[in-house]
Amino acid sequence: MTIDASDRAAVAHFVRVCGSGVVATVGRDGAPQVAHIALTATDEGMLVFDAASDSREARSIRERPHVAVAVTGADTSVQLEGRARITHDEERWRLGEACSERFPGSRALDAGFEIIAVDVHGVRIHDASEHPPRVIDAAWT
Fold first, then answer.
1. Which of 91, 109, 111 is nearest to 101 (CA)?
2. Per the domain annotation, does 1 fall within a domain?
3. Fewest CB atoms within 10 A around its CB: which of 13, 76, 98, 120?
4. Cα separation values, 69 from 33, 34, 130, 131, Å
5. Domain count along the chain
6. Any idea what the CATH number is for the domain that residue 68 is in?
7. 39: exposed, middle or buried (C-beta count within 10 Å: 0-12, 13-18, 19+)?
8. pTM, whole model, 2 decimals?
9. Phi, psi dihedral angles at 34 (to 5 degrees)
10. Looking at the domain assignment, is residue 23 inside a domain?
11. pLDDT per position in the chain (141 positions), as tens?
12. In whole angstroms, what separates CA 109 from the centre of its chain?
């Protein structure tokens, strides 16, 4: 299944269908950190997930907001890079509702949890359904 890496809606649809991924952050000591996350996306391609306020991914994002996220389907993987941020006020509620809608029973809007938005600036699609596998890159501005 080839996805156009420059098509934000198509990438967002893939992320929503898969529903989870791995986020990579950089810890205080400079070491890489990864966490498996439940993940959704807006139609514009913004990634959205929740994390406990005291989790290492939330702590790392507060200090070093550059992240990479990998989402994998059957033959396709999508790698996304961007700048993450802890949301507040109306945006927190709006995106938290999107998380709760995608994941019924989610505690995303509970006290002690953060809603994290990732503004994506780079996408790489790896499509292994073709031989040889196809790699497609796109920069989002």
1. 109
2. no
3. 13
4. 12, 9, 23, 25
5. 1
6. 2.30.110.10
7. buried
8. 0.94
9. -130, 150
10. yes
11. 679 999 999 999 999 999 999 999 999 899 999 999 999 999 999 999 999 999 999 999 999 999 999 999 989 999 999 999 999 999 999 999 999 999 998 899 999 999 999 999 999 999 998 889 999 999 998
12. 18
